[in-house]
Backbone:
């Protein structure tokens, strides 16, 4: 990454070497004409001079990227459960549907402590696991991006049969399509007198989502979260789609996960609800999650039980971080606590420098206004 010298950068952005050195000096970084710029320095300079630079994973150490994103040997890959994100308009029954799926499929253990807040659950059907992520209707777009997006394999669009296609239904569909994620439509509330599934099909066909039984390419499954009608069909449809996708991961490597949501919990401290994307996460692992870090103290599954380790596509709440990470942050396992701490500090430092570079610019502007 350190392959641009100060004078080369100055030439590229049409500035004098003095200006470049001056900007960094103002931030407490001493460089000379022939020094190589670090990624952080390049980012700060780009910000300052308002130029675009392409930096790949600017926050990550090169070794981490290599370690985690290395081409996986096919022989190490094993089948993993699909991760399903449930989306749709407010009140169309996303949470009810998920509740129904869980209560009929998950042995009802006493939910303890922090598990009520896990927005992700795993169920089993025909001996296959399926991971579900719930999203609130009113935040469909941002939620899709920040919570499930990075881990989502398939989206279920829930449409109430009595209400039909609504603004957030359309929004959810357009973002799912844009993300290139396959979608399945669940027409919910079929138990209602006023249910009109054909209307839902007609409305969706108008926006390019044609039902398979109407000659289109999308599976529509009529369901009722209240009576349980169609739930088995829905799960089977999901498993069929997942089979086609041949979802795989390598459970025998250091874990990589994504934060679905996070909070500060009494008695536990910072808690992050994550879904494992690859590898296996163990209690005792040193992790960095965005700008937070720590050693995994406990892994809590969606049924309230504790696990020692969890593999690909498993949702869980993890305890042991120094602070609350952000939704969408990536969890990476590293070998030592020193490594995660140092990288976390680097990321924090980078943020401070960026913020500082902004305020420096502002004060210079203020100054020229005064003159
Ligand atoms: P948000 O999270 O706010 O977007 O809503 P949601 O999509 O999760 O809907 P939720 O599951 O909270 O259900 C909204 C209302 O619809 C509740 O009053 C449910 O009881 C009702 N409802 C959900 N599913 C069904 C169903 O299959 N049949 C009937 N009759 N009512 C349902
Ligand atoms: Mg809900």
Residues:
């Amino acid at each position: 990454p350190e392959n641009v010298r100060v004078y080369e950068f100055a030439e590229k952005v049409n500035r004098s070497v003095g200006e470049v050195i001056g900007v960094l000096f103002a931030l407490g970084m001493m460089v000379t004409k022939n020094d190589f710029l670090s990624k952080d320095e390049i980012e700060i300079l780009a910000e300052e001079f308002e130029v675009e630079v392409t930096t790949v994973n600017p926050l990550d150490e090169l070794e981490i990227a290599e370690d985690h994103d290395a081409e996986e040997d096919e022989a190490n890959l094993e089948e993993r459960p699909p991760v399903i994100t449930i989306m749709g308009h407010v009140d169309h029954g996303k949470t009810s549907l998920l509740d129904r799926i869980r209560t009929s499929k998950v042995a009802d253990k006493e939910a303890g402590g922090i598990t009520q807040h896990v927005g992700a659950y795993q169920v089993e059907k025909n001996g296959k696991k399926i991971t579900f992520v719930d999203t609130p209707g009113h935040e469909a777009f941002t939620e899709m991006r920040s919570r499930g997006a990075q881990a989502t394999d398939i989206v279920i669009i829930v449409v109430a049969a009595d209400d039909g296609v609504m603004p957030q239904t359309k929004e959810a569909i357009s973002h799912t399509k844009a993300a290139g994620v396959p979608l399945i439509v669940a027409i919910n509330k079929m138990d209602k007198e006023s249910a009109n599934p054909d209307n839902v099909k007609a409305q969706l066909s108008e926006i390019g989502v044609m039902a398979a039984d109407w000659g289109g390419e999308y599976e529509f499954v009529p369901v009722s979260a209240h009576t349980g009608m169609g739930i088995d069909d829905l799960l089977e449809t999901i498993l069929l789609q997942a089979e086609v996708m041949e979802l795989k991961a390598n459970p025998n490597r250091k874990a990589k996960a994504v934060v679905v949501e996070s909070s500060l919990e009494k008695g536990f401290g910072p808690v992050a609800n994550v879904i494992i994307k690859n590898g296996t996460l163990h209690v005792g692992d040193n992790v960095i999650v965005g700008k937070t870090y720590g050693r995994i103290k406990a892994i809590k599954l969606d049924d309230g039980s504790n696990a020692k380790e969890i593999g690909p596509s498993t949702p869980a709440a993890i305890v042991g971080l120094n602070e609350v990470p952000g939704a969408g942050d990536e969890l990476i396992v590293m070998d030592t606590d020193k490594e995660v701490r140092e990288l976390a500090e680097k990321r924090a430092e980078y943020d401070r420098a960026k913020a500082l570079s902004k305020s420096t610019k502002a004060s210079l502007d203020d100054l020229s206004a005064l003159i």
About this structure: Residues 94-95, 136 surround magnesium ion (ligand 2) (CB under 6 Å). DSSP finds ten helices and 17 strands in the chain.
